[in-house]
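Hello everyone,

My group is preparing for a crystallization screen and wants a predicted model to guide construct design. The compound we'll soak is pyridoxal-5'-phosphate. Before spending weeks at the bench, it would help to have a computed complex in hand. I've included the protein sequence and the ligand's SMILES below. Output in structure-token form would be ideal because that's what our pipeline reads.
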Amino acid sequence: MTSECSPRFLASDNTSGICPEAMEYLLEANRCDDLAYGNDLWTARAADRFREMFDYDCDVFFVFNGTAANSLALSAMGRSYHSVICHELAHIETDECGGPEFFSNGAKLLTSPGANGKLTPEGIEALVTKRSDIHYPKPKVVSLTQATEVGTLYSREELMAIRAIADKHDLRLHMDGARFANACASLNASPAELTWQVGVDALCFSGTKNGLAFGEAILFFNRELAEDFSYRCKQAGQLASKMRFVSAPWLGLLESGAWLTNAQHANEMARYLSEGLQALPGVSLMFPTQANSVFVELPPHAIEALKAKGWTFYTFIGAGGARFVCAWNTTVELLDGLLADIREVLER
Ligand SMILES: Cc1ncc(COP(=O)(O)O)c(C=O)c1O
Ligand SMILES: C[C@H](O)[C@H](N)C(=O)O
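Reply:
Good plan to model first. Here are the tokens for the complex, ready for your pipeline.
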């Protein structure tokens, strides 16, 4: 059964398909049987490749999706009576349906404001020093998202300043790397420069948004936090019996370099869209376009008209507005069609 593709998906990089490099490795992993539950050779190779890529002997785990990755990683970084400091727009706060709190058996998220979706050292310290009594859930983890939920980036300097505050207050540092590849691409920084070298203890690295069907890698640079973590995954239903079908596509991304080129392309498409939108009368960006998503305010009639034309995009992310997300397979033709339709509906 083949149906015509609806070419108008810009709601999320989650709507893209599997990139060729990942598909090639998936099919290769399907050629022969292999051991289950992560004991296969593909999983071992993928984990080693991550250690080579990050230039660090980190622990590596694979789970199905980002909510599981964040929730389980955070549950390993603090105890139920602790709190996790995150930005008020953080995905773990807004879009994980209480997963982090559930899997940590009650750790509380303490949210902090910050321009452009980013935590600040001052905002973190304000929450840490707000109270010290026994009734306050003791801050133990800082969770930041790189690239952020509103498509902005933390510089290395900003990450190091957050690490300094974390050191001052004995806090651990979690990075939601749903779009980590986009951050590396945009900042022209190595994975090491944006993680362990700036004191990140654990990274949740999304493959789903980078060209996989599913599959997130959890990297523990602070290996003490990874003790018994595989049991957490199993208990949460996140230990894939046919793990090779998660890890082999990941290996395809890493060995081919597509993890980076996919992100570079997505970022380039977002820049193209961003420039095109800013050229339209009365259209302004809500946030600087630094990764693969573009946020603009559009009048309600325009949003309705665009959706009636078949365009899909979210209006509930971050501080509202319309979010357009570019992926590894986004094309200029698609974006030109969107820009033409936006121009047309705005002129109505
Ligand atoms: C910033 C961020 N973190 C985490 C996730 C969680 O991913 P999932 O939807 O796979 O649970 C997403 C979803 O796309 C996301 O945008
Ligand atoms: C919004 C949804 O949760 C998903 N994280 C996305 O960015 O598309």
